[in-house]
Design a protein that fits this description.
By secondary structure, the chain is mainly beta. It folds into two domains: 61 residues, no CATH class; 95 residues, Immunoglobulin-like, CATH 2.60.40. The chain has no helices and nine strands. The protein has a four-stranded mixed β-sheet with strand order 7-4-3-9, with no helix packed on it. It has a three-stranded antiparallel β-sheet with strand order 6-5-8, with no helix packed on it. A two-stranded antiparallel ribbon has the order 1-2. It starts with 27 loop residues before the first strand and ends with a strand.
Length: 161
């Protein structure tokens, strides 16, 4: 049986390059094909596994649906906290929007991730919602990167204000 790996499945937790986490709903078999999401870093790039059996499907080009209004992060009482505001700039209500914050050290090496649903669910067109994600703090925390996705789904396109 030939196995094809493609980059279409949703539900990947953000981990450093070389590590992968899948939700149960993400792994599916149909017609002898198994879909596995593969994501490297937070820059929107993707990486497939090595081998001749790898096939990529082109990603759909779409407009951003969210606009990051503002955000910051800090540590307090052993907890890393990222909070801010995000605006729905699409013409559709968005359900189960999740903020994902990846905390890294000063060299950019992964330390931990915090994920949380934004406060408004759904977030209506033109509406701005607060968000707050937390993770256990580590003395080596140096930087944080942010992304948005749907719960049990894939990354949402967004832009900075």
């Amino acid at each position: 049986m030939r196995m094809q790996i493609y980059l279409e499945c949703k539900g990947v937790s953000y981990l450093p390059p070389g590590r992968l986490s899948l939700s149960k709903a993400c792994v599916s078999q149909a017609g002898g094909r198994i879909g596995l999401p593969l994501r490297s870093g937070m820059d929107g790039g993707s990486r497939s596994s090595s081998g001749d059996e790898t096939a990529r499907r082109p990603a759909a080009i779409s407009k951003p649906v969210l606009e990051l209004q503002s955000w910051h992060w800090s540590t307090e009482h052993g907890v890393a906290i990222a909070e801010g505001l995000v605006k729905n700039i699409s013409d559709q209500k968005l359900k189960n929007v999740e903020v994902v914050v990846m905390f890294v050290d000063s060299n950019g090496d992964f330390i931990t991730t915090g994920e949380a649903l934004i406060e408004y669910n759904p977030i209506l067109p033109g509406q701005t919602s607060p968000f707050k994600a937390m993770a256990t703090a580590n003395p080596a925390l140096g930087k944080a990167q942010i992304d948005f996705k749907t719960l049990f789904g894939g990354s949402l396109r967004w832009r900075k204000k």
